[in-house]
Structures are given as C-alpha cells and as structure tokens.
Amino acid sequence: MYEIRVKRHFDAAHRLVDYDGVCNREHGHRFDVEVCIQGNALDARNMLVDFKGVKDAMDFIISQDLDHYQLNETLGVDNPTAEYLSMWFFRQMKARLWTVGISDIVVSSVTIWESPECSATYREV
C-alpha cells in the first residue's frame, strides 16, 4: 500500500452558534487542509498519482467554497467546525477525483488544521 499526502491552505471566517466562548463571535483562521491518498500500485512513471492532480483538485474545491468566504454562509451550517470541515472536504475531494478521472486510488483521510496546534481528521471506516 502506498500513501501520499498533499497540504494546502485557505483563509476563511466562521462562528460557532450556541457555543459558550469567544468562538461564538465571527472570527477568521488560516486553515490548513491535508489530504491523504492511498493505493496499491504505481503507474508507469512509478507514481501513485501525480501530486499536481491532487493539488489541482484541492485548489478547485478551496476556491469554489472556502477561501475568503464566511463558512456558515457558504456551507449552510450553523457550526462549520474543523471536524465538520474535514468530513465535508473528504466528500468533496472523493467526488472531485472521480470527476477528473482519478479513480484507482482512494482518499483515505482529510485533516483540517484550524491552528498550528489543533486539527481534526475524517476518514471513512
């Protein structure tokens, strides 16, 4: 089994509804998103998948719905937490890779870093 990881970032605002703390106010983060891809075989170039294809898919998702947006509004949820974002991005990434013809690999996990010290990871079991 091979595994690659690609990391990107985006800036966005959000607030946590019904949260007892300062995060109930609108605030921003520089989020990092890390996608982990797995597969069993390398291609003729000895690659699992070209990093560029993964970066392009991530950049498309980020530019459409995340970067410099207010996440409560664009994602239509009260609490776009790091946990929620990791699940949402996982599903978007899975669909995007299939759409661009990358189908013989799997998205194994997505980690969203809300700060350098705090992250949440989503993986399907």
Summarize the structure.
The chain has 125 residues and is an alpha+beta fold. The chain has a single domain (2-122), classed as Tetrahydropterin Synthase, Chain A (2-Layer Sandwich). It has three helices and four strands, in the order ββαααββ.
- Under CATH, the homologous superfamily reads 6-pyruvoyl tetrahydropterin synthase/QueD
Order of SSEs: EEHHHEE
Given the C-alpha coordinates, what overall shape results? elongated
Uncertain spans: none
Number of helices: 3
Number of DSSP strand runs: 4
Class by alpha and beta content: alpha+beta
Tell me the fraction of residues in β-strands, as a range: 25-35%
Helix share of residues?
25-40%
Which oligomerization state do the chains in this entry correspond to? Answer: single chain
Can you tell me the CATH topology? Answer: Tetrahydropterin Synthase, Chain A
CATH architecture descriptor name: 2-Layer Sandwich
> In which order are the strands of the major sheet placed?
1-2-3-4
Give the biggest sheet.
Answer: 4 strands, antiparallel
User: How far do the termini sit from each other?
Assistant: 17 Å
Domain count: 1
Average pLDDT, all residues: 94
Can you tell me about this structure?
It is a single chain. The chain has three helices and four strands. Helix 1 (51-65) crosses helix 3. Strands 1-2-3-4 form a four-stranded antiparallel β-sheet, covered by helices on one side. It is of the alpha+beta class and 125 residues long. The longest helix has 18 residues, at 82-99. The protein is elongated. Helix content is 30%, strand content 33%.
